[in-house]
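TL;DR need structure tokens for one chain.
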Amino acid sequence: MTAFIPYGRQLIQDDDIEAVLETLRSDFITQGPRVAEFEEALSSYCEAKYAVVFNSGTSALHAAYFAAGLRAGDEFITSPITFSATATAGILTGARAVFAPVEPDTGNLDVSQLSNLIAPRTKLIVPVHFAGHPVNVEALFAVIKGGSIVIVEDACHALGTLYKDRIDGNWQKVGALKHSHMCAFSFHPVKAITTGEGGAVTTNDVSYYKKLKLFGNHGITKLSDNFINPERAPWYYEMQTIGLNYRMTDIQAALGISQLRKLDVFIERRRSIANTYNNAFAANRYFYLPPERDYAKSSYHLYHIRLKDEYFQRKLDIFNKLRALGLGVQCHYIPVYRHPYYSALQYKSIESAEDFYSREISIPIFPAMSDADVQFVIEKVFETFEGI
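>> reply
TL;DR here they are.
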């Protein structure tokens, strides 16, 4: 057991280190065979046709929005309970973010209130699978009724999450895209697997796939079959669209391949820790536990508690006491529209998001936690609340 337990951290093992060292000893450390291998492994795991990897979850979102055709004059709807990148990646295209109300328990976008927000300029909807619990994307897909609106899932918390389809009753991986067009992931160190920094987008649409590949590589292609100009010299390549250097390296991909092999074990451990917390905290009078809908098997990127009415006004005291006792708790998230950049754009507050923010505290959960660590967290949580 450690003296200070963060809310999340990576689990790097000897096989991960060896995979990176092997790549460092090879001829390729930037764009080489490991990138393609990781993309193939990821698409296979998610049961999607295509996966494109990027150097961060933010760049993955930016690329997905570009591929969706988001541009100046458009609007996109997303949740305010998310990291700022979800909205900022869309702002970078020139589009305007529209923030939706959230469910009071999951913190996810409230699909039942979407119809009031959809307007003629709505190009895109970005549901955020907060803490690893999926949004009801089947219901969301029904709202758009097969129209021109594109759905990009922000699954940066949700690699390894399962979603149960209400029609056929089968469980599917988030990223399989039965009810969406693209799905973005993050491989930051606190996420389900890590590549240091990194991200990916899955899709089943070849046109989106080609745009994703172009955008992350300066808008450049070297594939002669895709050339627009007649030039065929061996050194020739074309910049066909605007793009950026969002490429993942072979070093990162090698780590990702190794980590992906252990993802199911990591998720099993997260769910085991969550189950231990649920049992320990079941009868507590201080806070609500994170829910799990009947259509969901959460990957538990976060284990978020929500303070009950008698305690949420003392959130700062509770937070500080938990930190002082050795728990690296965190708050997820400050509603995006509260940040100075967005408040300057005169966004209005959303009651459901404010309520969730006022109550939420994330306590430690990650695969490297020992059973002793988990018990330490439980003890310190009770010690904190019983001392109030």
